[in-house]
Amino acid sequence: MRTALDPSAISAAITRLADQIFLAADGNEIDLVGIRSRGDEVSERVFELMKAKGAKVRLGVLDISLYRDDYEHLSSNPTLQSSEIDFPVDGSHVVLVDDVIFTGRTIRAALDALFDYGRPAKVDLAVLIDRGHREIPIEPRFVGETLETDRMDRVDVSLQKTDGEESVVIITQ
Amino acid sequence: MARKDFLDIVSLDRAEITHLLDQAVPFKDLFTRSVKKVPALKGKTVLMLFYEPSTRTLSSFEVAAKRLSADVTIFDVPRSSVSKGESVRDTIDTLQAMRADYIVVRHRLAGQPAAIARQTNASVINAGDGAHAHPTQALLDAFTFREVYPEMEGRKVVIMGDILHSRVARSTSTIFEKLGVEVAFCGPGSLVPQTRFRRFTNYDEAMKWGPDAIYLLRVQKERQDAPFFPSDREYHSVFGITEERLKRISDKGVYVMHPGPINRGVELCDGVLDYERCLISQQVENGIAARMAVLFGLKPKVS
Fold it and tell me: How distant is the Cα of B2 from the closest Cα of chain A, in angstroms?
């Protein structure tokens, strides 16, 4: 087990995300949608940073439990939480936000979930950490930090509000 | 480990019940989206096996299953081979060959859904068996009550009507009890058995107890061989919510619940349906969310 990011590196990565998205928005409206769990906390922090810069930004949360493709392999189904997208998604520019991108399957599920709320004009993807090893053709446009990992490694992200501490660790199996 | 079957409330503990109620919340949230469907049970088959007529429960399960993207087959029992003398056991073997993942059963005999559950790999959900249990009704009742009283502990509900013949009374009283809600039964003396619950045979006495909700049971004309009370009008005046009683209920802010279908002029007067604390249509909507939570929570045996 090794620490890949300490609290200050995490904050720096989140700031980088906010800066990149702010530039890309170019004064236009952006809707951040965080994916539970931890993507919601990342998106919330990006949201606060962007708002402080005067960006026109809204915030939503997506629970993708009902859109997963691996129920067959689970002994019991995941605990659901509510999604909270209080704005119309139709015609908007959505940035999906997650903590880690790995195989890309979570994002596939998130896209399916998002499109059931409406038809956004454009969807981008922002991740705190890209750890590689994609299994489907989905790539983030905004990345806070890229980590070299082995396919079998586990990347554990802890964030203040969700976990009570801040760290990103790589656990080698 | 998830359960395979959902057969009664008695065998669930409080944590399981609370988990199911919590799970029903995000399902209910889906109903306000433009797309009300999620792909959770895509490619799964839900079979409706109703040996007793039912429109509401059947439709509610059908909508729940379809909103989870399952394929739904309704096995039309009265017109099927059952009326040609096929036994339940042989029917289940036939259905097993169809590879249903979930079977929703209603039967006039208590215990039949449990017997079917032992015979099949599919997840079996009891949609009402005799006077035994109607667990999804209980779940939606508890969910509806929790929406108006998020802290249910110590609240009081009086269940009114023919308790003796009612599976709704059994399951709903059990779920309320497990969640810390005080339950009382009220009805004609011959139809209110002695149980662990408080017992009233007089409407006014039950109301003096100070319930937060009155749960009206349907007068089941089809289930009684001999009528236990002389007429609908008499039942209404003795145990029904009349216009005059509605006024008193309204002054106290008591909620009204009913599993449906209602008999106007028997259990309740027309005015109840316009009463702001009448939860009957909420119960119908919540029934879909509760049944989605049940379907999503079960795991059929992998064969």
Answer: 5
Cβ atoms of A87 and A62 closer than 8 Å: no
Cα end-to-end distance, chain B, whole Å: 17
Beta-strand pair A2-5/A167-171: antiparallel
* CA-based nearest residue in chain A for residue B40: A66
Number of domains in chain A: 1
**Model pTM?**
0.91
pLDDT greater than 70 at residue A170: yes
C-alpha span between A112 and A67 (Å, rounded): 7
Q: What is the mean pLDDT of residues A44-55?
A: 97
Q: Which of B33, B40, B297 sits opposite A117 (nearest CB)?
A: B33
Q: What is the DSSP letter of B218?
A: P
Q: Which residues of B touch A80 (CB under 8 A)?
A: 22-23, 25-27, 296
Residue of A nearest to B44 (CA): A72
- Residue B224 pLDDT greater than 60, yes or no: no
Beta carbons of B219 and B263 less than 8 angstroms apart: yes
Q: Which domain holds residue A142?
A: 2-67+88-171
pLDDT recorded at residue B78: 66
Of B25, B39, B299, the CB nearest to A66: B39
Element of type H or E holding B206 = helix B203-208
Handedness of CA B154, B206, B200, B109 (dihedral sign): negative
CA Rg value for chain B: 19
- Contact: A80, B26; criterion CB under 8 Å: yes
- Domains of chain B: residue spans and CATH: 14-134+285-297 (3.40.50.1370), 135-284 (3.40.50.1370)
Q: Predicted ipTM?
A: 0.84
